[in-house]
Amino acid sequence: MNPVILEIGIFPTYVYSEGFCEIIIIRSVYFFIIALQAVRRLYKRMKHLSVIILVFCTVSLTNAYVSEKDVIKEEWEAFKLEFSKLYEEIEDSFRMKIFMENKHKIAHHNKLYITGQKSYSLAMNKYGDLLHHEFVSAMNGFKRNYNESLSKGSIFLSPSNIKLPDKVNWTAEGYVTPVKDQGSCGSCWSFSATGALEGQHFRKSGKLVSLSEQNLVDCSGKYGNEGCNGGLMDQAFEYIENNHGIDTEESYPYKAKQGRCHYKKQNRGATDTGFVDVPSGDETKLMEAVATVGPVSVAIDASHESFQFYSKGVYDELECSSQELDHGVLVAGYGTSKDGKDYWLVKNSWGTSWGENGYIKMARNKENQCGIATQASYPLV
């Protein structure tokens, strides 16, 4: 390295850069000795500093390793606190392992989402400590009846001379009550049914009244429904028609378990006079019904882990079945995403911490994906 010559007074000074310090050489014996002593002192300090740096790095690496384990534990504790989970020691370890495995699956999927290979992202939620079959067993309570006719109601007739809008959102129009939570009870069918009736009641009266799912869980057994073990929306509409009403949510609150029926006529919030079935498998007919009538009850295949942890985007699950339906939900509208993907706007009954504040956008015009048009219906009021 060539020195840089500086003129300081009468002594030419040579400066060599050595990274951390500069060595100054002055053409003078006296100043040379002084400079040499300074360099020796600096060298000793640098050796001492090197040891300190080495020790610091070693300690830091050790702390980083410990912190990684601590972070995992802290994430698990935070998860339990957020969702009020409490386990005995042995089960706690088991559930934490499931939690971490689910986090890994979510992270893997989201890498594909970030790179554009998936149209929707996943996120950890209150179901993160459940094995998938536990989740499906607890949450998906739609029971399709293959032994009887699926269509007992009136048949939907397409409206004539009507241009359908490109986008519909009945939630924004005031037809839909806030997202509810079915808890660990397979009563999704009851939430789908009340959602459709709440919309039709609003359409007729201009009043949005939250209706009682518990009324359906407790009282519609003789129509084929099985409370927390599943049911059908059409059977719920049939019960409401023959019962001449359903109570309000306020008068007959949800318990997430089946109990004794205590419907009271004076607490009735709405009624229906029958129901309409949309032609099975026809997304165009479903679109017509949603656009011209209001929110529609539908059944879907929600048996996949991707649905369990859905967070945002247009849900496009290639493994979805159009026939094996296990979950009742409410179509509250439809539209097209900014990147050109058609979707159904669907209200779920798993609380607002799931999905997009309790909603999911499901792929539309994809050959009846997830069976969204297989068993669609709405009540008559």
Structure commentary:
This protein has 381 residues and is α+β, with helices and mostly antiparallel strands. Helices cover 36% and strands 18% of the residues. It is built from eight helices and 15 strands. The strands form four sheets. Strands 4, 6, 10, 11, 12, 13 and 14 form a seven-stranded mixed beta sheet that branches. A three-stranded antiparallel beta sheet has the order 1-2-3. A three-stranded mixed beta sheet has the order 5-9-15. Helix 4 packs across helix 6. The N terminus is likely disordered.
Keywords:
381 residues, alpha+beta, seven-stranded mixed β-sheet, three-stranded antiparallel β-sheet, 15 strands, 36% helix, 18% strand, globular, disordered N terminus
